[in-house]
Fold this sequence. Notes:
Elements: H1 6-10, E1 12-15, E2 18-21, H2 34-43, E3 49-53, H3 59-67, E4 72-77, H4 80-92, E5 99-103, H5 108-113, H6 130-136, H7 142-148, E6 155-160, H8 167-170, H9 175-178, H10 194-202, E7 207-216, H11 222-231, E8 235-241, E9 247-253
Parallel strand pairs: 3-4, 3-6, 4-5, 6-7
Antiparallel strand pairs: 1-2, 7-9, 8-9
Amino acid sequence: MTGESVARIIGIREFYGLGFTLNAATLEPRPETELLVDMALGALPAGGRLLDLGTGSGCIPIAILANQPDATAVAVDLSALALEAAQANAISHGVATRLSLLPGSWFEPLTNDSPHGEPVQVRKLRTGNQRGRAADSATTSSFDKLRMRSDAAFFDLIVSNPPYITSAVVETLAPEVRDFDPRLALDGGPDGLAPYRVIATQAANWLKPGAWVLVEIGYDQGAAVSALFLEAGFEDVAVHRDLNGLDRVVGAHHL
Length: 255
């Protein structure tokens, strides 16, 4: 027995009532992540614009778009292979025209690809080095790019299920996770908080006033992740529990 799950073997996993194609670069969607989708649907206004960071299979934004037909979304992932799965899933569930897919690290591709707020449509994925393009536009400072963005460049909601397992713990995970889920989507750094530091310190630059950030967390990270958002100036920071009674989502309000 290798420990490979049935979903990995057949290449598809159900999430939020929808089937999602998987590949070697995507996590298997877990039922506990459905809380993040539930909360997002409650926080995203009619006709709202969503940003998903570290999208993987695209299960989070696709589930949201499938249930909110007037919404649009941008999804970012460092893995071009993961974005291939997300694009296939978006097409399968009829939301491809409302979902833009960008390769890169966290907020970086937003600045590189849409400095003036132009909408980005689903397109052929690039696998080249994004940093080269950033270097070409180095004469425009990050501050200038933020100042020049139109309202279309800001989001009504940011969501993320980032890597949050500490590096030392990854090797101790169950075989079906350790050996088959992509390490890039599991390892959150020495303390498991590296992605949250990026999101907490940069999210406000991309949010409309009154918008929210919702992030999935590990069961023991509620206090630490909440502190990061409070330190970054967010309000109404709260930890929400899943159906098992475990801390699962941190929400933070950008006023």
